[in-house]
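Exercise 7 asks you to align residues with tokens for two separate proteins.
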Amino acid sequence: MDTSRNMNKITLTGRTKRLFLTFGMLSLLPAFAQGETAPELPKGGSALPPKTAAVPVILSTYQLSQLENSRENSDLSITGMQPENHLYFAVRQDEIIAKATLNLLFTPSPALIPVRSQLNVYLNGSLQKTLPIEEDMLGRQNAVTVELNPLLIRNYNDLRFQFIGHYTDICEDQLNTALWLNISQESALRLSRQKLITVNDLAFMKALLFNPAAREQNTLSLALAAHPDPDTVKAAGIIASWGGILSDWRGIDYPVFLNQKPVAGNAVAFVTNKSRPDFLRDYPEVQAPAVEMQDLPGTLNGKLIIISAPDAEGLITAAKAITRGDQLMKGPRTEIISFTESAPRKPYDAPKWADITREVTLGELALYDGQLISSGVNLRPINVTLNLPPDLYFSEGSHIRLNLRHRYSNPPPHGISEMNFRFNNHLVRSYQLTPAREGDTSVETLFLGGFVNVLNQTRISALYLRPKNQLTFTYTYSHTRESEAKNCISDVQPLIHQAEVDPNSSLDFTGLYHFTRMPNLGYYWQSGYPFSVYADLGNTAVIMGAAPEEPELNTLFNALGRIGSQTGYPAYNATVLFAPGEEVLKKEAGRDLLIVGKIPAVIADKTPDLNLVLNESEQSLGFPGTFLEQGETRRRDQGKGGVIDPAVRLSQRGYDGISGIISFESPFKDGRTAVALMADSPAGFQALAEHLIVNKTADDIAGTVSILNSGTVKNAEVGHSYYVGHLPWYQRVWYVMLRNPWLLFLCSLVTAVILCWAAYRLLRRWRSGRMSV
């Protein structure tokens, strides 16, 4: 073993138990002011090379509406009923805050008593400033700068505003509507950030690369050899999907550098003994897969994670080891001694998806402790996210069974207090809170008739399921006061209430089927379907050209990161193919196809209704006559036989920068789906890769063809449709009847004729019997 590289060795298995390791504090070498140089580490161990460049100060400004727990594009309102409000912000673990200021714009109620009314600002529980409300401040907007103590700032921070309001000297009611203070959304938090120079320790790899506590989009560069092979791309895809899981709703971008050194930020490089980027050509050969952290050359504090192996297959092993065993890694280098593959995933078992084969408790759906608890004078809504497979089939009589248990503080005897249960903002049921009971259990059967599904393409204002759903429990207590001023001897203080939804409350989806009409890009966009049916992408074949370039690889890795964020599981078992021939594709016929770049001729020639062509020589689209409206997922004028013929076909050659997504049935096996990510140029792929980042844009992808052009998205539905999934024979008969009312009428008519004829024959025989007596 090369002891000079301080190498650790670990053994990983598919059932590795999570080890809770207590590491020492991260050794940090900050330069606290501009102009100071980074000190050298002591000799020995993992010494950083001397740095003489100054650590720059980065000034970041965040409007309060951008902070966590705030309402988007809305002011912050504080009242006597809700006198406190919390906002949260995060700071990267590899940064320090040299200075923090809060530029506050607030408007107090004109009914307040001056000076006795105040606004207090707290940072992580420590009072930063008390702002007495003077007489000249009442009823108008005021600007105040609050200096925050940077030494109090942690990775995750609580910025609390406390309003103390008074409007009268006697018999004061904190619920009076005259008590209010409005903080403008234009108020800003200004942070002067400096990057820390950290030691190379893999124990902090996840925090440095992905910073799970922050709200900003992540960026991680991937460095590969000039001509990476499919296995190397697969290994990079595993890392990309893992990063998507850790970045979650914030999204992540993966700039790709082929045979080049990334110039800023953090990066991951993939190295084998025979194939590597030129800037790592002197990296020693390895005998086993390994992971190493180094400083990124040419940067002050960037980190480079080097994933090395004797061959490309070993890179896949190392990538899987990182994503499953990073808790075991420590020091600058770790070698993978052995690795045992886990069992392939089963259909529809993505960690982020609810299991519809059994009852699912709300405790399983909760993301953090205390999510199912709300307390205060005005209780905040309790929200729970429910992710479902997008291909659920709903027929008349389909239902969800809700077993709801909840506890609540005793409501006032007068007035009405209630809990409203909403599903995707649609009211399901109101429950009256009963005094002296302080708890209820309710079993509800929620029928799903009238949903937007394969049977009914019209959009109606009713309860319906989506791939991502929001369950909301809102508790409202009545506030009454029965007193007159002459009898009032003390101020009226509002009661603090608390409500809890029992974690053992459950939802039962058993009895629903997986069956839907395809293609549907909306399913792909919202949940990665159909590739995400197997969370490890074990039934997915990624198809690229013979020598994919940086923009195409960037698009692929962003797409895999997006799917990872939607399933919660890395893409361990995707198959990557470069320019496959017909025989290879026939062997992979049972897989769904994710095509990045130009659609291979062997696929295009077998797909006659391919209605989008984008490449360096042609831009061609078969128009459906009308595009889908915003929010519309299906055409209402679908042609006979499930085919919508293009009304116009336009071919042209215009400016570069157009990209698109198209979905169609795989020509190699019925019921398998192909999704192609296409562009006419590197600029088009760059725009598409950016659009694939989670929450980067509010535009929805839908239909079977989606065009991205100059920042706008147009969706259309052309080509034939097909069905995937399984239905029992009686459900299929019913489904065909509902899709064809004339057939239902004809069968009813024939049935009526047969029954009438049978009744007629029976009556004739009965009459003949009587006549013969």
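Second protein for Exercise 7:
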Amino acid sequence: MEISVYQKPFADGEAVQFSHREGDVTQALQEAINSLKREKGYGIIFLEEGVYLLSDTIYVPRAIRLIGWGKTRPRLVLKERSPGFQEDVPEDKGKSRYLLWFTDRVPDPGEAVADANAGTFYSALSNIDLEIGERNPCAVALRTHFAQHSFISHCRVCAGSGRAGLFDVGNELEDVAFEGGEYGIYTTRTSPSWPCLLMNARFSGQRRAAIHTREAGLTIVNLEVRDCPRAIEIEDGFCEKLYLEDGVFENISDCLVTAPLDRCAANQLSLRNLCGRRVNFIARLEESGRNVKPEQETFFLREFSHGLVMKGVSGQASLQTVCETEALSSFPLSFPKRIPDLPPQDEWVNVRELGAAGDGETDDTAVLQRAVDSHAVLYFPQGFYRLSDTLRLREHTALIGLNPISTRLMVKDNEPVFGGFGTPKPLLESGKGGGNLINGIAIDTAARNPRICGCKWTAGPDSYMNDVKFYGGHGSMNPGGENVPVYNESRTADSDPARKWDSQYWSLWITENGGGVFKDIWSASPYAAAGLFLSDTAAAGAMYAVSVEHHVRREVLMQNVSGWSFYALQTEEEVAESSWCQPLELSGCDSLTFADLYLFRVIWVDNAFPQAVLARDCRNTEFWNLHNFTQMKYTMDFTLRDADGGKAVRPWQLTRLTLNTERPAPKSGGRVERLADGFDNVDAICTDSRGNVYFCDSRKKNIYQLDCQTGLIRPVWGYALPAPFPDLRRGGSAAGGVRILSAQGLRRTVSEACGCGRHSLRRLVQHWVCYQSICSGPAGPGQDHDGFGMQGQGGADRGEDGGLSRKPLAGQQRPPLHRLPQLGKRLAGAGRRNRDCLLLRFGACLLPAKSGSRKAFSLRR
């Protein structure tokens, strides 16, 4: 008997409560689903414990979730010899009939079924068991070809004499058990061609294989397979991208995995940390006729890998097969779980009972902050909970929702505390070093809040974030279930011209030794500077099934991160907002592991891009099953580029790649040297008192440091400028640091920053505002040594976070920019989208230039 994870009913006025009843409930359950979809467009149906008899297919449309509760799990049973389940269905892709079919919409009578697809989000089945009754040989319990935030969890599927437990995987399966059937799972490629995470899964008693796959891209963590001929069977004539870590296999009469086209370089087979007993073969490499057999009856498989391997950015790719086994003295029954359990429902406190309105209009900030301060575990029934300031969690606060599309922490546009200029201000902030938990909730930062960061995460290794949507752009739905328009008619900007892309800080920011487990996260807001930013953390951390998409400059940034693992991380770029977006950028990282990394550009993108991964100063980083692909002829030319050594990895498909960036050898002066390329518009060069050189890339809004000691170039100052700074100048300061100036309408902003190594350009809390002024002669009151009029230390009104209010000084004019010491004039030579802007050096001169051009502009240090 499987454990019920929800043992009590849920108090949720927006949900449908489906109580147990006798007899055939097919029509009643389908009508409950249809009614919820018609009335609300999305939501939850709670099933009370009990056995429910079904005689036909139940269709579950997009954004509807079925969740069971009770001392034992509810069980949906296909009645013995139900009509239509005895013969193949020739016109169906899986040739089968399904007990539960996840679809894009509920079909009208006589209408063809619209299968779930790459736009089918937020659907789920959780804490419900399924059973196929006898004499239904063509029955399959589940069809699940859905996409982000859709999953099957806490589910036992008894296929019995039926065909299979599940056909066509999608997104994620967690804590699932498959018993009987010809197959536990048989599947084709996922609907969006991304990886699918299978976690904490158990298979037993299948007649042919536990899993039959055709290009599904499975990422499997913690798998148990017992008493069947094959564990994983790849369909004849196809390659596969398979990553499997931590598994127990017992009584496998044939093999763990088959590889029909093992001579094809597109194969990516990676098996790690497996325990086997009475397994005949580890692998059958059918094209070459090789069988890989374990040397012991009871064994530990440290690694079996087959595919294209590179042992460094300078190495040559070659097709390799690796098998490392050793004897086991004792055989484990399973591996430890990596995913923490939710707190018991007895500990949940309903925020509605504490006074939260959840109507999207009432300001719930004070109520929710009091709730956090008073209670450890908060349950959020479906609703939109409006915030007007940061919600700060205590060290062990848990926030629990059950559907992120219908349960949101949100802010409206133009909320004052998130406006203006300043450091990132999170909508949600974790407790530092604690064990926070967030489940089933969306974080909605709107679009016109330039200082906002969706979530700042500094919680520790025991923390957990699951099923969280960073709301905005793709995947947004209006009440009623219709998609929120994403683009204008020309597909060049947002459908609302007042909402500007790339105008906020990062959606999820993990920093200050933040760590923990992150699973089923979707970050696709084009208003954010990046979907995911990890910085300055060596705490233990792991990510599973994280999707980061549709940003303007970068999808995923990592700076000074060590010891993290990423499973089934996926990025995607669209033509409108992401044509020039860097999918993954690493700087100063150590000992990272990426497994089944998918880097993807959609069919409408009409330009090539230099690289999928950009790396600087990275060590001991392993990529297992690296997949760089597009749907059209415009490619990401290199899979990875080492910005330090100038080396590039060309193969687009790799089973294994080891990354250690290479520092270039020092060069003597007296000749023109190419320091770096790949910039769009090198601008505003200056130096600090230590001799380090700073410059910016105006289009990317990035600041870089050229270290005078090492000669290496690094992004600095939070790694990327926030988008409200559209025009940049810079100059030296009396303190030896660097001053940043940015045009915003008629005003100029100035911020002071220190110039001290890799953490240089740390922005101060105090932000000076430079007004239109001209100063001649010595600096007067209210002016600095450069003659800038500013309201500084004395008498200024301080804003939130210690910032200064922006009060203009009367009678002052704008200073000419050439009066700033060491300020380089703006340097031309590269267009807005020219990827060939170089940085050259000749003696003491820096020369930004357009590749192939005879023009170069210099600034003497």
